[in-house]
Structure formats: C-alpha cells, structure tokens
From TrEMBL:
Span of domain MAM: 11-130
Protein name per UniProt: MAM domain-containing protein
InterPro entries with a match to the protein in the record: ConA-like_dom_sf, MAM_dom, MAM_domain-containing
Domain of life: Eukaryota
CDD domains in the record: MAM
GO cellular component, one term: membrane
Taxonomic lineage from the root: Eukaryota, Metazoa, Chordata, Cephalochordata, Leptocardii
Family annotation (SMART domains): MAM (SM00137)
C-alpha cells in the first residue's frame, strides 16, 4: 500500500505486494483471492491484471462458478480512511463469465452495515477491464 502523506486518508493499492490492509469478512459465504494470470475456470475472468497488463500482475477476484450458488456473498473491506476531506474510490473491475451476479460497493460511515450501494453492476460486462 502506498500512502500519500500530504493528503490524510489517501492510499493506493494495486495488490502487487499484498492485500494492503484490505480484510475478508469472517461471516460471509466465501473469500476473495489475490491472484495473478488467468482465472482457473475457462471462459471467465481476466487473462491478466489491469495495472501491470501482464500475467505477472496481481488482482483480487472471486470464483463465481460451482460450488457457488445464487445469493452467496464474498465481502472485502478496505482499511479505515479518514474523511477529513472529500474521498474518491477509483477501481477497475472485470465481470466476464456465465455465472456473474452482482458487484456492489458500499461506503460505511459507522459500525452498522450500509443499506444502499454507491456502485452496482449486474451480469456479464464483457471480457474487459472497466
């Protein structure tokens, strides 16, 4: 994780070294995986990561094929970020394959789970990073 000390709360994570402080939910149905190269299931996922643009780069993904079933959830939490200034989330996503459901991004401002996503995409979005 790279921290910009000139701006409180700013961090940049490309998952090349580690999870940069992102954590898995211990009570969801399955976990995200830090991965490099193509996904294990054919005709799904990216062939490589977006940042490095080759099979050596890392990204986080979830396997939505079997044994996953509709309604399974995998939650990944960012490190706590200071809200002393306006915050932005910039990320790349790749939703390719026949078993794609929904990607939701939530902003949590207290200890209660947020009810409405600030970003949502459902279904296959093509074999491309968006």
């Amino acid at each position: 994780m790279t921290v910009d000390s000139s701006t409180p709360g700013v961090f940049d994570c490309d998952f090349e070294t580690d999870l940069c402080g992102w954590t898995q939910d211990s009570e969801d149905d399955f976990d995200w995986t830090r991965h490099e190269g193509s996904t294990d299931t054919g005709n799904t996922g990216p062939p490589y990561d977006h940042t490095m643009g080759n099979e050596n780069g890392h990204y986080m993904y979830i396997e939505t094929s079997s044994p996953r079933v509709a309604g399974d959830r995998a939650l990944l939490y960012s490190p706590t970020v200071s809200t002393a200034c306006t915050m932005y989330l910039h990320f790349w996503y790749h939703m390719y394959g026949s078993a794609i459901e929904t990607l939701n991004v939530y902003v949590r401002t207290d200890s209660s789970p947020p009810a409405v996503p600030v970003f949502t995409r459902t279904g296959e979005q093509g074999n491309q990073w968006l």
